[in-house]
Structures are given as C-alpha cells and as structure tokens.
Predict the structure.
Amino acid sequence: MHPHVAQLLEFLRFPSISTDSNHDKSVADCANWLGEKLRRIGLDTTVHPTAGHPIVVAKNAHRAGRSTVLIYGHYDVQPVDPLELWTTPPFEPRIENDIVFARGATDNKGQILAHILGVEETIKRAGDLPVNLTFLIEGEEEVGSQNLEPFLAAHRDELRCDIIAVSDTGMVARGVPTFTYGLRGIAAMELKITGPSTDLHSGIFGGAIANPALMLARLLTTLHDADGRVTVAGFYDNVQPLADWERAAWSKLPLGDGEILQLTGAPAVFGETGYTSTERTWARPTAELNGIGGGYQGQGTKTVLPKEAFAKLTFRLVPDQKPADVLKKVGAHLRANCPPSVRLEIAEGHSGEPYVTDPNSAAGLAARRALQKTFGSEPALIREGGSIPIVQTFRHLLGADTLLLGLALPDCRAHAPNENFPLENFHAGIGLNEALLGELAGLK
Amino acid sequence: MHPHVAQLLEFLRFPSISTDSNHDKSVADCANWLGEKLRRIGLDTTVHPTAGHPIVVAKNAHRAGRSTVLIYGHYDVQPVDPLELWTTPPFEPRIENDIVFARGATDNKGQILAHILGVEETIKRAGDLPVNLTFLIEGEEEVGSQNLEPFLAAHRDELRCDIIAVSDTGMVARGVPTFTYGLRGIAAMELKITGPSTDLHSGIFGGAIANPALMLARLLTTLHDADGRVTVAGFYDNVQPLADWERAAWSKLPLGDGEILQLTGAPAVFGETGYTSTERTWARPTAELNGIGGGYQGQGTKTVLPKEAFAKLTFRLVPDQKPADVLKKVGAHLRANCPPSVRLEIAEGHSGEPYVTDPNSAAGLAARRALQKTFGSEPALIREGGSIPIVQTFRHLLGADTLLLGLALPDCRAHAPNENFPLENFHAGIGLNEALLGELAGLK
C-alpha cells in the first residue's frame, strides 16, 4: 500500500463525530494525531483547545514579500446512522476498486490530508514552500463551527493571509476539474409539537384530542406549495436572480436530470417550477425536513395518541438571504399556522451565510490555472448547494476570499452510508496542492 | 399484604409484551403461571400452544341445566416505551396510596385476576359455582388476537356458552359502576414513503429531489379536514347515527370537556364539529397517527434528505363500518394523493369489527343488577372508544353476546407510562364476579 494511502486509512479510523458528545474523546484523539502529523513534516503546530473541539493551526516560517495562503479543512465527521446500511463499518476503511469507503473519506479527511501530503512532498523536494502557508483545521464544521469564529477573532494577526483555499466541495463529474465560486448558506431549526401530558390510548381519547404528530404533519405541509416553492412570507425577498451567463454555463454541464436520478435513485426530480435541477440546488433556497419523529417507533402496532412529535429543519440560503432573517420569518409562519389544540416549541440551531466570489479575480484565475495544470482540462465554473459557512466568516474577519477547489465526486455519499473517495482524486489533490501554491506564489 | 394483592403483583412481574418477539419467553412463562393458578383452584386447565402465544382455557365441571358463562381476558400487555417516563420500572409493581402501578395493572391483568380470585373464593366457600364456567385467557389481545379466531373455530364445542363476560373496559368515574354496550372496531395500516436509494446530503440535492418525510407529512395531512373529520371518500358511508337516548344519557355523565382536559393535560379538545367529546370517542370513527418517523433521530443536526419515512395508522370504527372496506378506501385515497416524486408502500395490519349489544336484554339486565349490587348505585350505560375485536368474533363463532363490565378508571393510563389500577377496584372485581355469576345463574 502506498504510504500516503496508509496515512489516510489511519486518519479515517478516528470516529470523530462532532455532534455526539459520546465521541468527544475520539474527536480529541483525531486532533492530536493531526497535530503530530503536521509537526513531523516541519510545520510549527499548535492544537488549540476551545469551548468545543480543538482547532489545529500549523505554519511554515513566514517571510515578508511572499503570498500568504491559508488552507482550511476539518477533521470532524457526520454521524453514521443508519448504521445498518453501511456495507462495512464506517470507521474501518475498506478499499475496493481503488475507492476508499469510510465516514469522512470525502468530507473532509481525504481532501484535507491531500493538501497536507502535498505540502510534505514539496518541502521534502524543495526544502520550503513558495508561499507563507497556514493550515487551519477545525473539529466543528459539521455542527456549525461555533467556536471557530471567536478563535478567528482572537487570532486574527496570526491567521492574516491574502487568500484562502478549501477543498471541501465537489467536481461535477469524474476527471472534470471544478472551481466553485458560490455556496448556499444554512439555518437550522428544531420544532416540537406537544399536546397531552402523556401518550394516550388512541381508542379512549382518539377523536376528542388533537394528535401532535398529525398536527406537526399539517404544520410542515404549510411550508411549501405543491411544487416545493417555500410559502413562508418574505422568504425569497433577498434572493438574487441567476445571471444569464450562469444559466448558460450550467446548462452545458454533464449534470442533467438523468444524472441526478441515477445518482440518487429517486423516482423523479421535483422542485420549484422555472428552474433546472442544478439551478434549484445551487442558486435557489430550500426548506428541508432532515428528521421527523413521534409516537411508537418499534415493531408492530401500538395504539397510542402520542404526547409529542418533533421535526428537524434546515434552510439552505442563497445570496443575499440572512439566516437570522429567515429563521425569524419561518418562526412567525409556524406560530401563525400552529393549530390552537397543540403547543409549539421552536429551537433555533446553527447557521451560516451564503457565499459568492468572482471567478475572474486574480486569485480565481490562478486557482483555475492550477486545476487545469493538475487535471489537463478547463475547469467547470459552478456554485454548490452545500454550505461552508466559515467561508463568509473568513471574508468578514480575515478580509480574504476563499478558493473552493473540491475533489468530491457526485456519488461520494457525503453525510450518507457508504461515504467514499477515489484514490485517484486523493492523489490528484496532492498534486493540486503543489500547482496551487506555485500559482498563488506568482500573485505577489 | 393481602394474599390477593400479593398474587396480583406476582402476575404483573411478567413482562408479557406480545408485540415484541424479544419477550416471547416471558409471555410463555406468564401463560404457564396462569395455568398453574387456575389448576390450583380446582379448574380443569389447559395451556394451548398456538402459532403465536398460548391460550389458557380452564373450566369447572359443566352440568346440564345450568347457564354456561365464558369469562374472557388477556395476559399480554402493551409495550412500555417511552420507558423514561415511568416513575418506577413497569414490571416492578409499586403500590402507592392503595393504587398499584405497573404495565398491565388495569389492562388486563388486574381485571382478569379479580375474576379468577372471585371464582376461587366462591369455590372455597360453596364448593362449586352456580354456573358452568369457562375461562378463556389469551396472550395476543394487544396484537389483534390473530390466533384466537382459528382457536375458537377449532374448539367451538368445548367453548359453547350462553353468555360471555369481559372486564377490559372502563368506569366513567371512581365508584360509578359502568355497563358498556358498545365498542369501536379497529383497522391498522403502516405506510412507507421512499424516494432516493440512500439518505442524501440536503445541501447537494435539496431542492431538486422530493423529501420523503415531507411528502409523508403532506399525504397524512390529506386524511382530515381542519376540524379533524376524515376526508377519505366513503369513510362515513356505513356509520350509524347516534340514538337520541344515547346523546341524552351521555350528556348527564361526569365526563365533559373539563374532565377530558384534566385527564389528558391537552391544551384544548379537538374534533369533528357537531359532536361532544364523548360522542366523538364513543360513536364516531377516527383516523389516528400512532407513530411517525424518518431521517435523523439523534441529538443535534444532521443535514440529510432522508431516503424514507414511515407512519403507523389505526382507524377506530363504529357500527356498521367494516375494517376491510375502510382499509380499502383509505388505501385508494392514499394512492390517489401520493405525489409521483416518491413511492408509497402500504401494509395492512390487524383489524376488528365494532360492536354494539342491547343493554335491556335479559343478560344485560342481569349484568346491570350485579353491578348495582357490587357498587350500590345504578350503573351508567355507555359505549367505549377502545376496541376488543374478539367480542364481535365471539358473536360470529360462538353465537353469544358479551357483557362488558369494566373496572378501569379514566386515569388508569392503559397503554401509557405509569399504568395503574386502584386496589379498591381490584377487590370490587372479586365481589363483582360472585354477584355476576349469581345473577347469570338465574337466567336458566
């Protein structure tokens, strides 16, 4: 096994699930492993404790007159359930047909480790990098990066940079280098509908007491029209329309409805009228139900009228929507539509702003050249439907834009069972790091 | 501790949950304990194996010229979840203020054991009973009694009787003897909505693929109008209207909206317009959501678009609705309303017909006299919202009507955490058995 691959498997074995406090120890172990790795390649490395999970910072010796590049990534991963749908255990990486299967393989351990190994190779060969480099690798990306923002504010001088690079996005297809110039934002909310003080016998009380699970279903149904357009008043107020060049460029990508149906296995595409599927996912906001539960969950039948039911919602946002504004409007909508026969509780969760940058800026052009050099073809220019809220925070706090040079394939199953990353992309990422730092060195 | 109470606690310690195959051994142990008890009091007892859980039959020596009475009950219980809402463990019975708390205390172990102990007392005192008696006690009442019907058909001669008595219903209030002359039927159905072949990243695909959990919510919402009236075409076709004397009698019972709100803790009553709460629960059918689930169920946020979601439904039926007809109509409604962007799977569950008998028949009057004798006041005449589907099967297969002489109080929490049964009612049940067999002896 190539030593780069062996290190990837080692990294993937940590169950660094940031949302679940039962895994706090594994998250910390993973941060320390990363710190050790960065120290061994000669970087000045600190594993910073935070109120949550540690933040790892590593730098070469910075010298005046060079470009300063910050590479951001994360070592935390999503939960693994439903566990029974994994072919092999999520933290026992398996390689099949040169693809590695494990939670975090794509998102984000494979991609950030490729940058680290790229830096290691360049230092081995050239003794130093052509730029001042800072790695910033956190453990709370999957739970909203809540401790990263105060950390950035407190370490603003130490983290000062000209440009930021992140590989945590996707390629439109295998072998198609992809430059992502926009991301959706996110805002999370959890609802609870409560009614009776205990589960009731559905024979004795059914018909006379409102069913919280049914009332929740009714309330959720008010969020969209029949075609999936969000019906919350003012939801689309600040949405910027798509530019003509974007619609034209995207229509040429190998990402039509056929590809989406093949990728997802869904029986049909579905969404807001007047937009293609790529336009719906990249440039239009959503109200999505990530989880719902209430009443009897076991085998067979239990004839209860449940005391409560919950729903976990996230809203994907596009420029210029603001998370706080959206959550406020949705909250008002839910309160106005909640039947008086039940009670509604709303808890707001993490959020992050949407992002867009100019793909024709000097740094944007440098990144596109690095992609072209690595993959041998012109990069696709896209936005993405996912969220990396910290990108907008970087702009606010460090004053630098972010280049998104993702290596994930559309069928990488990020956040889902059997997440995977092709070794081809892993090795390409190592090469991309060298090309990128070379191009960015030329900016100054 | 009174020896009767000690025996009740012993009976309650078996976790005889019939719906969960992990408890099969406990269900069998409970049946054998019951068999031993019935043998010890001198009854000819057999614990019959079935394709499911055992059926216990016990008889005194039957003699020509006497009334033959069959007393039916069940030793299986409902599941216990949510376990964390129990003050003490559900199978470690606790007595507080002369009330016993345990799963099955009311439904049905406390009530059937009272009959058994009543028979034991009478035999001890008089040497025999005034009637030919058969106990028929099953272990699948909470899962639809699916093996009882073939058992009745196969043992029809052995189980021949003039009248059946069951204590598995409620009293309208403490100290108010209650004769139940009607029950709702039931029909169960489980739905699954599926979409993509795996959970998807809600950022990458959200907006372009229908969300199965949201589509399930939308589909469930089509089952009722805003007031809770079922909107399935033909659902009310065979519903018999309430008689004037019933509405008049029920309006005088101490069971108004105030009592229902106090019992349930719900913020408001809710239901079909034009009916009181007792009318809604006793004489009007329902479509109830017993459980719903899909997507992320854990702590925090997981940004998935879930691959599937399920709903467990039961329909409470009133004369003359037929379960198969209702399930067919509901199935057609759901298929017609399911969006084409997802797939719908329907699994029909157990069912039982609604029941009504004449409270002024000779046996009905005998039962009412026994209740009056035991409690010292005129019994209330009611229907009940719950279902004992086997009552209708008794009528079909044994040709006998059933007297429902329940001892459960409205706050017994049957099917819910902290189920309980007052010892006062337990002891009354022992006395009621003697009075009832005496009255029924007089019918022949």
